[in-house]
Amino acid sequence: MKKILFSLTIVLMVGGAIYTVNNYNKTKSPSNYDTKDTQSSSNKSNTNSSSNKPTAELVGINQDSIIMKATDFKLKDLNGNELSLNDLRGKKVFLNFWATWCPPCKAEMPEIEKLYQETKNSDLVILAVDIGEPLSDVKTFIDQNNYNFKVLLDSNQKVAAQYGISAIPTSFFIDKEGNIISKHTGPMNTDQMKEYIKGLDK
């Protein structure tokens, strides 16, 4: 009985690692960044159309190596300053999509902060793009946890749709020429993030 309970616990922990975002279904345009999807067909058909808030469902982990140009965007940070992705040419970019309501995203945040503290004087830029939440909610969350990396607000979810985000957290790793080199869906620890960043130098 103990072995059965232990096995069930492990399955639930792994299964709960990633949450899907389905509120893009009506507005999402085809994206150049869609890669092989391990989400089951049953999950894809289970969409909550009665609410504008993203819904959470279980999906599989998807890691892909891709090489394509990252679409430019302009978003404001928590201080109202506008940032353009194209302005970061010549720097490596770790682009992460997240939300405060997402448990795996929140679990990943301390790892991102650790990476930021280790690399803040390097040529790596970390951008954490919050999807569809009010400034006040996001700022409160960031301030309460003393996070220092750059947070951007995708209030109308346009950028998330452009990048084909169907699950969060989802991360893109962009080289100095503005090419997306790899993508990771699901939470990561700092060591995993560093491995992807190493790939930007190849």
UniProtKB/TrEMBL annotation:
CDD domains: TlpA_like_family (cd02966)
Biased composition (Low complexity): 40-53
PANTHER family referenced in this protein's UniProt entry, alphabetically: THIOL:DISULFIDE INTERCHANGE PROTEIN DSBE (PTHR42852), THIOREDOXIN-LIKE PROTEIN YNEN (PTHR42852:SF1)
Alphabetical list of PROSITE patterns matching this protein: THIOREDOXIN_1 (PS00194), THIOREDOXIN_2 (PS51352)
Region (Disordered): 29-55
Entry protein name: Thiol-disulfide oxidoreductase ResA
Pfam families: AhpC-TSA
